[in-house]
Design a protein that fits this description.
The structure is a homodimer. Helices cover about 30% and strands about 25% of the residues of chain A. Chain A is built from 7 helices and 13 strands. In chain A, helix 2 links the parallel strand 2 and strand 3. The model of chain A has no long low-confidence stretch (mean pLDDT about 90). Chains A and B meet through helix 1, helix 4, strand 5, helix 5 and strand 6 of A and helix 1, helix 4, strand 5, helix 5 and strand 6 of B. Chains A, B: Its EC number is 2.1.1.131.
């Protein structure tokens, strides 16, 4: 039997946000590979399925393992949170393919897209991504802080809405604060900032504040941070959190 | 009965990419509002449901209609392609709320996220969004071409992967070509360019080329254009389209 490999996005958390295509890919697989908590969330093993859980830090090893299984004829699903193409497993798989044996290039490798964290976070508060936007991972495991700074500066100067993934971790507790400090040099203190923890899960927590007031200590690894453009606005509501949205049209005098 | 309004993302086309949460919101609604083709794609009316089709150019009118129905006690679903928060209906609804009667602010308004076109397009070819990226709409209906140019320049100079929505239309046939010309002044001609038409539908068509060779006439309104960073690579394959992906790590000598 010819092996296949599908990198499957299971969305931000709630089972209701897993697409039927992703569920079908998981049900069809003989071998499931992924970070333990993701596998727990999405899989009930059926007869004939094997689970290969791993920790979260060995993406390339996990990718090679998946490719080797597919090459041996298995129907492999690599299970990834959010969308597999956005700061998740898909790029690691293709990196392994390029560096690996030529047989890996001939495999049937597919990506099943999913709802990435930034979309789920935006949906929780309104429509803050309503204009042009960019997504930046603050992790400097794989790129320099100089590059991250350069991208933050460019995004702020060109007035993009900015979505920050991987805002901080135990190993790099100061990066989100450093990013806010940099952005304050370019953007007004009244700029809307939204922090959404565990967006699209059953346990979401949101903070709506400003660049002048934001406290980076309120974020953790499961937080998605959105920084508005000059066109991002709040709609105040009686006794409820405000709606946050970005005007589709330009604002006169915007940066 | 208290009215509600849900802005529902139905993804890029294939029914298998509509989340169960989006399907449930549509099934629960008493009134469905949207662009005719989207409604046709996702809805089979049940008893008690009313459909309000509209053309695609009157987003604010459609938003106001939806809000008025919800205020009158209906369970309203505004159906939007892709993700409603990304160049789609959600921002128009909140714009209407801010400008409308105060009762609209008190409504229960929710957004159901979906798979936006850029994620579906990326998944068709590999993992081109594997690094930091930005999304820009080339439509100048609501913002100036000067602003679009400034954002393209900033994104290119900071070496983001760039996703272009609304690349051209009959009313503005030259914008995609102008954008490529601008990017050629900043990025090398070998930069990977991917054009995916009708990504995530049953009728997808993809072109993988370079910034030096790309022909804007191969795009239309249903095309999503991805322009690589210096870390975006092709993996050649025997007798098949190459895989396209962006290395997660920086490339030495990258822009």
């Amino acid at each position: 039997m010819t092996g296949t490999l599908t990198i499957v996005g299971v969305g931000p958390g709630r089972p209701e946000l897993i697409t039927p295509a992703a569920s079908a890919a998981i049900a069809h697989a003989t071998d499931l590979i992924g970070y333990g908590p993701y596998l727990d969330r999405v899989t009930t093993l059926r007869a004939g399925q094997t689970r290969h859980a791993s920790d979260n830090r060995v993406e390339l090893d996990r990718a090679r393992h998946a490719l080797a299984l597919a090459c041996a004829g298995k129907q492999v699903a690599v299970v990834s949170g959010g969308d597999p193409g956005v700061f998740a497993m898909a790029a690691a798989v293709f990196e392994a393919v390029e560096a690996g044996p030529s047989a890996w290039r001939d495999l049937d490798i597919r990506v099943e897209p999913g709802v990435t964290a930034m979309l789920a976070a935006a949906a929780e508060v309104g429509a803050p991504l309503g204009g042009d936007f960019c997504a930046i991972s603050l992790s400097d495991n794989l790129k320099s802080w100089t590059t991250i700074r350069r991208r933050l500066e460019a995004a702020a100067a060109a007035d993009f809405v900015i979505a920050l993934y991987n805002p901080l971790s135990k190993a790099r507790p100061h990066q989100l604060g450093d990013a806010f400090a940099l952005l304050r040099q370019i953007k007004p203190p009244s700029t809307v900032v939204v922090m959404v923890r565990a967006a699209g899960s059953g346990d979401v927590r949101q903070i709506i504040t400003t660049l002048g007031d934001v406290d980076p200590d309120n974020a953790d690894m499961r937080t998605l941070v959105l920084i508005g453009s000059t066109a991002t606005r709040l709609i105040a509501r009686e006794g409820k959190a405000p709606f946050v949205y970005t005007l589709r049209r330009e604002v006169e005098g915007g940066a």
